[in-house]
Design goal:
574 residues, alpha/beta, Enzyme I, Chain A, domain 2, 2 domains, eight-stranded parallel β-sheet, four-stranded parallel β-sheet, 14 strands, globular, binds phosphoenolpyruvate, binds magnesium ion
């Protein structure tokens, strides 16, 4: 299923032989409709903007009336029983592709005109109908310019096999939600939709972040084998679900899950997570037209706590804004050029104190039911932290006065995800009960790279030496002060960073639930001495590419070595 920036869908590829004449008639009407509307646009543009603007539509109309184009499309409908939508899309996309491959920038731009024409035709054929992503009737792969977090969250997991988007970054919230839905996805690969027609075979490789269009037989074979290998790997990892994560010299590491929705606790438990290290509560806003009431907050938290059956959960207060769910804070919102640097997250909570208190009340009330911790996101200055803590203090007093049952001594921690907070980690460590390092934002702010902007995705590097130094600083500060520290950004779900993080002193990670078994597996293949040596060497390198290549190589080596020694051991036993 293809969605352009303007989202349309080609519902069917073939029509029955006896429907061909009627379909040709439908195509003819669509052509006339588009032609008339182009004429009208041409006239209006000439009148209002001048001749040169009118000519744009004139050129589109001429292209549309080109008999060769029309014959080609009709030919496919007649000879192959293609639906008019499918035939038009196929022919026009072939032209667009040809324009783009001519190697001439001016002609390459004409591809956009052809695509525009395709959209007009499809709109005329389909009516204005926009597809309901949530009401799919058959299995599909979705290829879209962009999917918003809420569109992604509403995808039907039983029908959508995977998706790829042109826009976004791999730690954007659309990508995070793909993880929550456990969907193969590639987010932010740049311009590719014009190279695809409905009906093409497409492979989505979420591991390497690639989309392959029209693969040859060898590539298909390779991916079929990969799919089988992944299945047997996941069977092997399933055995780890009930095993505690320990290095092979016996050091216990806590591997928790990151969740967006209460239902995900089941996935955490199934995969043997040690609780929930990050509950992104802003997703309570998804699909809702109002700010959640205290009862709505409370019910969601109770659901999570009860499903965890005594395991800990860190509830993060609302982290709205930037690329996340916008929320109902219009009265405070401006139209910033840099939303990631704007009124988001804790800044918004400190502005809308009533809403903040509603959430804090709900957390403290739910906390009597289990092991709950509160965490503030995007803390930048000590004053901000102190303000948030003061409001929490007020809420505690209010609850006491009202006689409602609640828990008073809930541990209070903060995300370290702004470089300023990392640099002052020694001071912050004296005022909180724990740290959780949010590498997704830390990387974006330290490297000045928007995490959801595909155009700079190659500059977004977790392995940058500056990031390693910031991590070390925060971990050391936590250790000196004797407070727990976790990494909950996507970095900790990536196997190649596990030895580095352990070697730097981390004993707690919070990862996407799907990654729990794999992360445990890597931990089990490591000794602390290995991890420390790897971290020391990585810290001596001066460019991200070298750090990442080195870490990738080390993980591959460790896994292969122990596989080899397992085989040798069993050979010796025989
Ligand atoms: C982070 O920034 O690393 C993080 C875990 O928070 P989020 O991805 O929700 O911004
Ligand atoms: Mg963050």
């Amino acid at each position: 299923m293809l969605f352009g920036a303007e989202s349309f869908r080609i519902p069917q590829r073939f029509v029955s032989v006896d429907a061909v004449e009627a379909e040709l008639g439908r195509f003819e009407s669509a052509l006339n409709l588009v032609s008339t509307s182009l004429e009208e646009n041409e006239r209006l543009a000439r009148e209002r903007l001048g001749d040169q603007y009118g000519a744009i539509f004139g050129a589109h109309r001429m292209m549309l009336q080109d008999p060769k184009l029309r014959n080609e499309i009709e030919g496919l409908i007649r000879s192959k029983c293609f639906s008019p939508e499918f035939a038009a899309s196929r022919v026009l996309r072939n032209y667009a592709r040809a324009f783009r491959n001519l190697g001439n920038p001016y002609l390459a731009e004409r591809a956009a005109d052809v695509i525009d024409l395709e959209k007009r035709l499809l709109r005329a054929l389909l009516g204005e109908q926009h597809p309901e992503l949530s009401h799919l009737t058959e299995p599909v792969i979705i290829l879209a310019h962009n999917l918003t977090p809420s569109e992604t969250a509403n995808l039907d997991r039983t029908k959508v096999l995977g998706f790829a988007t042109e826009a976004g970054g791999h730690t954007s919230h659309t990508a995070i939600l793909a993880g929550a839905l456990e969907l193969p996805a590639v987010v932010g690969i740049g311009h590719f939709l014009t190279d695809i027609s409905a009906g093409d075979i497409v492979i989505i490789d979420g591991n390497s972040g690639t989309v392959i269009v029209d693969p040859d037989e060898e590539t298909l074979e390779h991916y079929r084998a990969e799919a089988l290998a992944a299945e047997s790997q996941s069977e092997r990892l399933a055995a780890l679900q009930t095993v505690e994560a320990k290095t092979h010299d016996g050091e216990r590491v806590h591997v928790m899950g990151n969740i967006e929705f209460p239902q995900e606790v089941a996935q955490c438990r199934k995969r043997g997570a040690d609780g929930v290290g990050l509950y992104r509560t802003e997703f309570l806003y998804l699909g809702s037209d109002h700010a959640p009431t205290e009862e709505e907050h409370y019910n969601a938290y109770c659901e999570v706590i009860e499903a965890l059956d005594g395991q800990p959960v860190t509830i993060r207060t609302l982290d709205l804004g930037a690329d996340k769910i916008p929320g109902n804070h219009r009265e405070f919102a401006s139209e910033p050029d840099n939303p990631a640097l704007g009124l988001r997250s804790i800044r918004l909570s400190l502005r809308d104190i009533d809403q903040f208190k509603v959430q804090l009340r709900a957390i403290l009330r739910a906390a009597v039911k289990g092991d709950v911790r509160i965490m503030f996101p995007l803390i930048t200055s000590l004053l901000e932290l102190r303000k948030a803590r003061m409001i929490l203090g007020d809420v505690i007093e209010d609850l006491e006065e009202s006689g409602v049952e609640f828990k008073r001594d809930v541990p209070v921690g903060m995300m370290v995800e702004v470089p300023a907070a990392a640099l002052l980690a020694d001071l912050f460590a004296k005022e909180v009960d724990f740290f959780s390092i949010g590498t997704n934002d830390l990387i974006q702010y330290a490297l000045a790279v928007d995490r959801s902007d595909q155009a700079v995705a190659s500059l977004y590097r977790a392995g940058d030496p500056s990031i390693l130094r910031l991590l070390r600083m925060v971990i050391d500060a936590a250790r000196t002060q004797g407070i727990p520290v976790t990494v909950c950004g996507q970095m900790s779900s990536d196997p190649k960073y596990i030895p580095l993080l352990l070697g730097m002193g981390l004993r707690s990670l919070s990862v996407t639930p799907l990654a729990v078994p794999e992360v445990k597996d890597v931990i089990g293949h490591l000794s602390l001495a290995d991890a420390e040596a790897i971290a020391d060497h990585a810290m001596s390198l001066d460019v991200a590419r070298d750090v990442e290549n080195y870490l990738r190589g080390e993980v591959t080596r460790l896994l292969a070595e122990s596989e080899h020694s397992e085989t040798t051991d069993s050979d010796n036993r025989e």
